[in-house]
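User: Teach me something about this protein's shape.
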Amino acid sequence: MKEHQGDLCSRYIKIFIVVSCYWVVSIATVFVNKTLLSSDSVSLDAPLFITWFQCVVSFTICFTLSKTGGIPGVFNFPKGSPWNLEVVKKVIPLSIMFTLMIATNNMCLKYVGVAFYYIGRSLTTVFNVLLSWLLLRQSTSLRCVLCCTFIIFGFYLGVDQENLLGSFSLLGTIYGVIGSFMLSLYSIFTKKVLPSVNQEVWLLSYYNNAYSIILFLPLIVINGEVGVLVQYTGFDSTFFWVQMVIGGVCGFAIGYVTSLQIKVTSPLTHNISGTAKACAQTVLATQWYNETKNYLWWSSNLIVLGSSAMYARFKQIEMEENSRKPVPEEKKSLV
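Assistant: First, the predicted structure itself:
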């Protein structure tokens, strides 16, 4: 009994540490990126270049881990090369979605405040339902559709109140909506591409970052950032490069702690943890930047947060119910 209690206690401690790491890394990543994208200390109006550099850092870390085989005693990094022609053909469409996803996410963060960032990107769940029906022909229960309706209402209310407070950015919100759409699209197509990399999430991340380094280059040119980079005078600053490297490390770390949290808990717990983290992040941002929000603005956050949590719970219940359904005799040979 004592051994069982000790094992249970150590498991809870491990879960607490992992969830805490996820919260710290995730919130820190948002604040670091906001500093890089729109602070006077960096003052570089080249968001796509900054995002590209973060991909370079993530790729460098993945490349190093692939050569060393991972971190001894922590995890093993799967073997694979992103320069295999067959791999490129199968993964590059997903990498295009990945590039557009992280680009629009950072563009959104550049123009909106950290407090509004969660609301600006809150339509991911809605797009998940819509794209699952359009692309996969998967129906959604009425209660999940109602949750999506409340999320849309919360998004609209948040945009309306942000506008009344004078801090609304139409461009940032548009980027947020596009980012939500690309995240949903990326999530759906990830399931199709994972078998091509032996179901290895780390290998897929390695390949995505490798290809994104190339894919970002024309986007940087199209966005007119070459001239900005040529005229920028801060490249000789050690402080600038330290911030850039920290941003890249945070970008890599968030992928690791997210996977780790799902591994030691469950996808539902991860969603609930992410929802609670978003709430804490919003409160922290309003305090950090000395922002004052009204009652309806906070209500919009609560509506989106609550509806997202309820949607995750309903989907878990449906998955459990489907797993308990008996398989018809004529289909058993096909399963």
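Now, about its shape. The first helix runs from residue 2 to 38. Residues 331-335 have pLDDT under 50 and may be disordered. If you'd like, I can walk through any region in more detail.
User: That's plenty for now, thanks!
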